[in-house]
Predict the structure.
Amino acid sequence: SDTTTKTFLMADDGSKGDVVNGQYIEYENYDRYNNAHIQKITTYASLDQDEGLADQYQYKLIENKKFDRFGNALEQIITSSIYDDHGDKQNVDYKMVSTEYNPYGNSTSQTIKTWIFESDNVTKTQVDYRQNFNEYHGMDVYKGRVSETKVLTYLLSETGDKSDFIKSEKIEYSEYDLH
């Protein structure tokens, strides 16, 4: 089913403050295992007088191309767009995402190839090729809590392969809340 979320700042007195944004997510093209092959995410900047979503400013089309037997998306194509002041949609970037999972359903590695759109809204220029590697230590593997992520970023060649190395990042996670 479709989902609507609204995010608010919290006022100093703990009450609901100004709206940060709202999202409407549509799910389409379910397969026989109830996996949605299409997700459309529209982000809004404000609410109308009835607290309905208003002033759309961002849109993502996520095409889930392949799933594993647990319903985890293995291959995705993500197109991100923004809306200009006239309400016209302008494509921003295009990503091809491949993800691998461990037997517990946790993402262990991910490859993300990114292109940006030119002003014609159709032509794409390659940007980067990123590889993420997640490690899970001890009991965190059972709870899906990443212990460490290594991110390697390369230039993306015209053929869609990784090219020159750009940078390496290491992210360590040390504490999680109780939820």
Q: What stands out?
A: The two ends are 24 Å apart (CA to CA). The chain is about 0% helix and 65% strand. The chain has a mean pLDDT of 89. The longest helix spans residues 140-143.
